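Researcher: Last one for today. Full complex below.
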Amino acid sequence: MKVLVAVKRVVDYNVKVRVKADGTGVDLANVKMSMNPFDEIGVEEAVRLKEAGKATEVIVVSIGPAQAQETLRTALAMGADRGILIKTDAEVQPLAVAKLLKAVCDAEQPGLVITGKQAIDDDSNQTGQMLAALWGRPQATFANKLFIEGDKAKVVREIDGGLQTVEIDLPAVLTTDLRLNEPRYASLPNIMKAKKKPIDEKTPESLGVDIASRLKVLKVAEPPKRVAGVKVPDVATLVQKLKTEAGVI
Amino acid sequence: MPTYKAPLRDFRFLLNDLLNIQNYGNLPGFAEATPDMVDAVLDGSAQLMEEVIAPLNQVGDLEGCKLDNGVVTTPTGFKAAYKTYCEGGWNGLTADPEYGGQGLPHVLGLAMSEMMTSANMAFGMYPGLSHGAYEAIHAWGTDEQKKLYLPRIVSGEWSGTMNLTEPHCGTDLGLLRTKAEPQADGSYKITGTKIFISAGEHDLTSNIIHLVLAKVPGGPAGIKGISLFIVPKFMVNADGSLGARNGVMCGSLEHKMGIHGNATCVLNYDGATGYLIGEKHKGMRAMFTMMNAARLGVGMQGLAVAEIAYQNAVSYAKDRVQGRSLTGTKDAGKPADPIIVHPDIRRMLLTIRAFTEGARALALWTGINIDLANKHPDPAQRQAADDLVALLTPMVKSYLTDAGYESATMAQQVWGGHGYIRENGMEQFVRDARIAMIYEGANGIQALDLVGRKLPTGMGRLLRRFFHPVEQFIQENVAGPAGKDFVMPLAKAFARLQQATAYVAEQGLKNPDEAGAASSDYLRLFALVALGHMWAQKALVAQAKLNDGAQDRAFYETKLVTARFFMERLLPDTGSLLAKVQAGGRTMMALDAANF
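Model: Here's the assembly. Have a good evening.
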């Protein structure tokens, strides 16, 4: 079984994101970029499946600028076998990503596709679900545990207030949650080997996918700064303020 | 708890823009070291150091190592972290591929060792000592010894140590008493006591390979009668499996000021089986292979501790609000301004930064020359690089640890009273950094090595390896746009170094005590000029990058400001150092010992 993992190059989770002065987006100049942490969990899960003899090949796909190759190399250093870079400098929204991944699925025929439940830059939480719909295959989102049993997968999902276990037919789409696994540190020999692993370059055009934006960003703004609080003399004043000023009760 | 972020941007700048390691693609190991590979390797090791090794630094300090009936237990977490480090293959970064290493350039090894030491100095010493043992066996061992020991040392399955010091002899190894009696099978029985043995006994590895200096009875007296032996903790069978416990036991652990996470052992050898490595009575030559590598490693410790101390001083200075700026309120939203508004806080932070970034450049430049000395196809180039490394080694060891310690106390000072409190971790840096000035040849000994051994070698041949490129750099750039700000100050300091050198050479010939009296100040003067040379070059590169419209403007502009600070605030010390050198040694030698 081939396992396909989608990996996105995003602003590193340690970076304090700043909004551009003109409010069109966030400032990416000289900002450290790395693999979306949920995708890293996806790569780890795929590599573990291969180590357990459940998967035969791990393919990683990234969509983005030339530098997204570094993200693919990181995944290859963790143990993925080969990469596919769908190169574009344009903004790619979840629907376009899902369509591109669908095109890759058609070509590669994977038994399982893993995506992060969301990317930490736009927090859309849509790609995996859209891909499952386009591909016409089952989905198990927010995976906490995965067991491959023949041509089915048993997935424990994180849901509000607990865990839910579902069984799905393969091929299927899985989206990872934070507690699915703890990604490994890439080893030095694997970092060096990763350089020699193949990365196939494609473009949205070569896959015949229209990636035009369907969503328009109106404005990006910093969250409001916290303002100083006030001390109230007694409960009555508090209740009154909650009623009249805050309007919450 | 202090935190650590590896200075990856600075490493990239130094390796790619200053040292241009991509130009050495013809040397073994460098072809692999393309900028993207170097990035990936540094990123990968940085992640391990930041997330796995650094969090154990304070744990190691508080718990220390424990000895129970000869068995040493390392602090909580060390064993698991060591396993992660070894499984990642990091121990073999620069090691010979024939023995399982990755054969990457030594200069990358130095970068990783800085990161590991910043993260956790006591932890980093375990692989550090193994690396010294690796170097000695690799350079002097027989093929059989190499095949038997090296693959397991490279993988980290076994570790190594250096055994020089005895209770009555440290600097003067000619006095040592440990005996090696020849046996019929060609091995030796080693008997004696070694002290201050770092990583001498621990639970991280299944075996420990001790490299031990001892005297074979009947050999020449003093230093010329010393031989080097391999003494494994567990006997090693021909297939590499472990046999009986050898007669070397840890008698006690030293109670030390710092580096509590590293086991500093008294090792008792009681007829332990040892194997000669290298020639009989020529042990010092082999030991120097280890010692030179170790001295650079110790120099890196000074820099590394200064780096993490700096990072935590900066975050405190930005966070701690106290009083108002001298020029009026800067942050009206807070009850007081963060202390980083104050010039004196900035003086301390910039002093540390001008040191660490200059020292990092000097260390990596030394590292690249180690690679050239080992790997360059042209013997003349190898010799030139080797000479330069020999000259720079006492400076890297001594100045980087002196200034590293000063930096650690300065960073502690930024924290005020909270810097004196154990939980905050700043005082640990001070205690840890202190040893680096002492071991591997106390800094005074390094200064004597510089004036007594390195300067006279080949009638100043070593010296010329440094003087000529500096002279050339000054001539080529003094008239350029950066001449006034960055090259003139270097030229002035360099002239002082030349004057001091002439003084030391002339007076030292007449009276060796004069050379000895000048040595420490001379070394510091020399090291400042070496850092000045690095800063001037960095300033030129940074300016060129800015002129080319580099994206990362803030990085290069910060480099220029720090370079200027170095030229204005650190390099002028060369003036007072020259005055001290030229004052001569008469006051030092005037008093009768009884009058002290």
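The CA atoms of residues 190 and 536 of chain B lie 52 Å apart. The longest helix of chain B spans residues 283-319.
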